[in-house]
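In this supplementary section we document a worked example of the pipeline. Step one takes a protein sequence of length 126 as its only input; no multiple sequence alignment statistics are reported here. Step two produces a three-dimensional model, which step three serialises into structure tokens for compact storage. The input and output of this example are shown verbatim.
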Amino acid sequence: QVQLVESGGGLVQAGASLRLSCAASGFTPNTYAMGWFRQAAGKEREFVAAISFNGVVTDYLDSVKGRFAISKDNAENTIFLQMSSLQPEDTAIYFCARSRWRYSNGGRDPSDYSYWGQGTQVTVSS
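The serialised model returned by step three reads:
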């Protein structure tokens, strides 16, 4: 069955960098788009970044453009989110997700995704 396991979160100071990983299994790499979402305490889940099934197309939340980068390693079926210049407002639980449809570019709505990881906490102190 499909499994997504995130790792790499932690507590950092503002301006620092973190690299999140999402180990995926149970489906063929490079057939599904993948996304990263985040949920801060008391807020709704928010789109952060997406990468198309073939890794060619990426999309980002405006507030993370230029600071975050999504990538994928099809050989390892792992998705990454490199985060730099982190700010306190980036504090949230970060989730990776697999697209509901094959051969898509992903999407910004959580309903575009059918499988989710358990999340990894990112805390940025000022």
